[in-house]
Amino acid sequence: MKHSYLVRAGIGALALGFAAVSAQAQAESLSDKDTAAIIAGIDARKPQLASNARKIWEWAEVGFHEDQSSALLQQQLKAAGFRVEAGTDGIPTAFTATYGNSGPVIALLSEYDALPGLSQTDQPAEQSRGGVAGHACGHNLLGTASVEAAIALAKWLKASGTPGTVRLYGTPAEEGGFAKVYLVRDGFFKDVDAVLSWHPSSSNGASQGQLLSMVTAKFRFTGVASHAAAAPERGRSALDGVEIQNVAVNYLREHVPSDARIHYTITDGGDQPNIVPAHAESFYYVRHYDPEVVRDVFDRVVKAGEGAALATGTKFEYEIIGGSFGTLPNDTLGRVVDASLRRVGGYSYTPDQQRYADAIARTLPKGAAKDGPSAIGTYDFGRKSPASSDVGDISWVVPTASLGTATWVSGTAPHSWQAASASGTSIGVEGAEVAAKTLAISGAQLFLNPEKLREAKAELQRSQGADFKYTPLIGDRKPPLDYARSALPAGRSGQ
Q1: Where does the signal sequence lie (predicted)?
Q2: Contact by Cβ (8 Å): 245, 290
Q3: Binning pLDDT at 50, 70 and 90, where does residue 27 land?
Q4: Residues 124, 476: Cα–Cα separation, whole Å
Q5: By CB atoms within 10 Å of each CB, which of 289, 403, 406, 454 scores lowest?
Q6: How far apart are the C-alpha atoms of 139 and 53, rounded to whole Å?
Q7: Distance CA 389, CA 398 (A)
Q8: Which among 179, 235, 231, 224 is positioned nearest to 394, based on CA atoms?
Q9: Comparing C-alpha atoms, which of 227, 222, 219 is closest to residue 267?
Q10: pLDDT given for residue 372 in this prediction
Q11: Which residues of 320-354 are buried (b: 16+ CB within 10 A; e: fewer)?
């Protein structure tokens, strides 16, 4: 797969810009009456959305261990008439919920995992609430809003008599476990016509951008323990292997594409200084927009580890923990979502919310705050974003579009205490409600216009290129159900 998908994506979008006007004129639009009914239905369930989001925020369960969060969302969908299958693809906290039996299949995505080490109260000051994790990426909001959108869309299908199937995938462990990639690899999206997703943000917008492809892996060295003072010559330091690999990789940075990213931590450096470490481990992320560049850079990181093992007389092995493609943006679907977002609009702060937002703004870098939650960003296609998501793999096999809504105070960075705080407040709920309405209206619009789904698929095929064959970056490994084991509460073991 030696090609540049970034170029093809742009060409595909350009071709769509000159689509036949007659086909657009024949498209059936969602009526104002139906739009109002969808919005009213989501408004009526706002207390439920707020309650669910708060519970998941308080539980703050890490990837593949979101037992309570997953069960709560499954219960909500069952009560709404969805057929729910738990443990999708052998992943305990994954699930699939389906409503309908005919017509196009439109899927929504629900995430609910928290980030290790970012426990935070809902106050506008940095203060741990005593837990081991926190929702600093807003997945408590993401999961609940997607569920509300699916329920609203199912109600509309039933009321309107429109043929169609709504499917919601409960996808755990986005923060490093990459559950969606396993579902794609194992064929769970093969009958889906379009995927609509969203993510918490500090602003409202439906631009369709390019995320980074990535591979994550743990590198393990095994040496020989010995007394570091009495018999150092007998020892072979596994920590030396880790450190020499890290030095080699840091020299490598000069000789990779400038927009490649390599990050690492030392997750095991030994126990105490007077023992030559027999075991040591580092954890690496390698990123770039093109998955082929990721494969190449990662292979070079592996070679650095092999050289470090040779230099230190240690044994070396590595385990790929996860990996995902960067997103392949779809302009056809993106414009549908953008139009729906503008139809819904943003929201305004209450006096209490404004006081909270002002307090948070004072903790942000000067000039970070920009537009408020009422503004809708200009639509942009193909802009690069320095982040990664396992939604990327889905976007390479099914037409996919996403949006962001203002669940955080303007200027807030994801994976920060400010994001964790706002995700537990009514500001987070307001932004999540905007997302739920936009997703539901977008889905209804697509069900009414099967031709739009065909256009989106044609664009995907042009962007993929004739020689494309999906080969996941995770290889054939099983889901790493214990990858976040160190972030579990005391007394709870990994699976």
Answers
A1: 1-27
A2: no
A3: low
A4: 44
A5: 454
A6: 9
A7: 15
A8: 179
A9: 219
A10: 93
A11: ebbbbbbbbbbbbbbbbbbbbbebbebbebeeebe
Asked if 394 and 400 count as a contact pair (C-beta separation under 8 A), the reply is: yes
Report d(CA 64, CA 177) in Å as an integer: 7
Token pair for 100 = 């309908």
The predicted structure's pLDDT at residue 369: 79
Q: Which amino acid appears at position 461 of this protein?
A: Q
User: In the numeric block, which tokens belong to residue 235?
Assistant: 């020892």
Tell me how far apart the alpha carbons of residues 169 and 291 are, in angstroms, rounded to a whole number.
24
Contact indicator for 453, 193 with CB cutoff of 8 Å: yes
Sequence-ordered strand ranges (E) for 312-359 = 315-324
- Nearest to 333, CA basis, from 163, 452, 463, 165: 452
- Scan for tokens 């994976």, then name that residue: 415
Question: And the tokens for 375?
Answer: 């503004």
- Alpha helices (runs of H) in 384-425, residue ranges in sequence order: 391-397, 417-422
Tokens of 4: 């540049």
Domains, the chain: 5-210+328-464 (3.40.630.10), 213-324 (3.30.70.360)
Determine contact, residues 307/248, Cβ cutoff 8 Å. yes
Any idea which residue has 């006096």 for tokens?
Answer: 351
Q: What digits encode the pLDDT tens for the residues 65-104?
A: 999 999 999 999 999 999 999 999 999 999 999 999 999 9
Six-digit token string for 3 = 């090609």
Distance from C-alpha of 421 to C-alpha of 134, rounded to nearest angstrom: 9
